[in-house]
Amino acid sequence: MYISTRGNYEAVSAAEAILLGMVPAGGLFVPQDLPSITKDQLKELVGKAYQQVARFLLPLFLEGFTQEEIDFCIEKAYNHKNFYHPQLAPLHKMEDNIFFLELWHGPTAAFKDMALQIIPYFLSLAKKKAGEEKETVILVATSGDTGKAALEGFKDVQGIKIVVFYPYQGVSQIQELQMVTTDGSNTFVVAVEGNFDDCQNAVKTIFKDANFKSKLQEAGFKLSSANSINWGRLLPQIVYYFWAYLRLIAEGEISWGEEINFVVPTGNFGNILAAWYASSMGLPVYKLICASNENKVLTDFFNTGKYDRNRPFKQTNSPSMDILISSNLERFLFEVSGHDAGRVGEWMEKLQQTGCFSVDPLLKEKMLGIIAPGFATEEDTLQTIKDTYFEKGYTIDTHTAVGLKVYREYSSMTGDKRKTVIAATASPFKFASSVLEAIKGGDFIRGKNELLILKELSEISKMPVHPALRDLEQKKVRHRTLCKREEIREQVEHILQL
Ligand SMILES: *Cc1c(COP(=O)(O)O)cnc(C)c1O
Questions:
Q1: CA nearest neighbour of 228 among 166, 333, 143, 301
Q2: Model pLDDT, residue 225
Q3: CATH number 3.40.50.1100 given to 91-111+232-466
């Protein structure tokens, strides 16, 4: 069963948690108890394909779904039509103890595909189980990557409409083109004059608005979410942390029970939280290295115990991490406080009212027992891409570079030599101009459009352009709506013809 982080809702089934997206009165659904995985169970999985690891892990969190149903979802999502690498998420060894988990071989070139390819199938099944006949409206706020991944996952899925809000001029040109060229009869994309937090706040406000919801109900609609506030988004992400560990075992890089580190370039705290769940289920993890960009609200939080979003929002060259309110921290706080829903509720209330809250030193120390926080500047990011290219012959994107930079600092400060897996969250082609700028210099890219830049990056990286990003210039722009941040709700009304 799933319970609310704020103790303000009854326990619900997996299907209901996925359908609702978030707790109606505010709060997020979390598993009441976490399953644990034994060493013997893990041993069974060594050398197995990604799909088989998923097949073992997903049912542990999806009571009420049959194994056949889950197998169907896995087959539909994780196949070689959607993913361009035979292993789905291969490990790339860069140094004796540094590995990149390439999570970007899916249809939109970012790790979000790992979850957003499968969640539409979960959602359709959940609807069937709940006897839900209303049309589902998925509202998505995106800092760039979720939007396209969700559009691809949900397009043309029966009984579902998807509406994506992204910050106007707050995403890369490629990200924007990917979104506005989406086809499908049920897709809507709206640019917002504001930043990601504005988009996310507006969406969360709509979710909490009981009047609006009853208006929707009357019109035959029901809301849900594909952001990582939805448990169905986090769950598939747990799989690849187990998968990475199993690959290291299979390749003889680690021995049974050996602890490893994960480095996760972090924005909304969803991806790293999935790693935390994996470790709590028994995966041998030493540290989760939480890598931020200059919007380093999380680095400061873990170092001081005070979360403070009252600071300038920075647009950086790792835009998918340009976030000041990391929604999934709420789930983490619930877990590390020993399911203290009362305190979590107070912190979140304070955050909403004043933009900040503080936890006590004891809790802070507890968090630092597993989390190692750090951040990288834009300059660090470019330098890291350059060094990695010239010294290691490996091309990484800006978000992944933030992870590597923070890891380098961590390992030189602590001397920790444990094997470490860095989540490579996007293909370098997705942020091609920043990556090419890093390698060839700012002058080299000046005046070139992003599509030419893709070609040049392909030449110097000796990698083909990611299939998701080929031929973007030939695609028709299908979405041109721009709205003010106060108009997000009106846009939803307009799109649904309420
Ligand atoms: C979404 C995203 C992140 C941040 O992930 P969270 O789960 O929000 O912390 C990092 N890198 C890339 C490329 C992303 O698309």
A1: 143
A2: 86
A3: yes
Tell me if 228 CB under 6 Å of ligand 1. Answer: yes
Q: Which atom of ligand 1 is nearest to the CA of 270?
A: 7
CA 83 to ligand 1 center in whole angstroms: 19
Chain mean pLDDT for the chain: 96
pLDDT digits (tens, 9 = 90+) for 59-113: 999 999 999 999 999 999 999 999 999 999 999 999 999 999 999 999 999 999 9
- What global pTM score does this model have? 0.96
DSSP code per residue over 404-449: HHHHHHHHHHH---S-EEEEE-B-GGGGHHHHHHHHH-HHHHTT--
Q: Which pair of structure tokens corresponds to residue 278?
A: 């994996």
CB-based contacts of 415, cutoff 8 Å, min separation 6: none
Residue tagged active-site, from 48, 76, 93, 112: 112
Report DSSP letters for 215-271, one per residue.
Answer: HHHHTTEEEEE-STTSHHHHHHHHHHHHHHHHHHHHTTSS-TT--EEEEEE-SSSHH
465, 429 Cβ separation under 8 angstroms: yes
222 Cβ inside 6 Å of ligand 1: no
Q: Which of 403, 113, 450 is nearest to 458 (CA)?
A: 450
Residue to probe by mutation, ligand 1, list 101, 108, 271, 290, most atoms within 8 Å of CB? 271
* Integer Cα distance of 187 and 168 in angstroms: 18
Q: Rounded to 10 degrees, what is the CA torsion of 44, 46, 47, 51?
A: 70
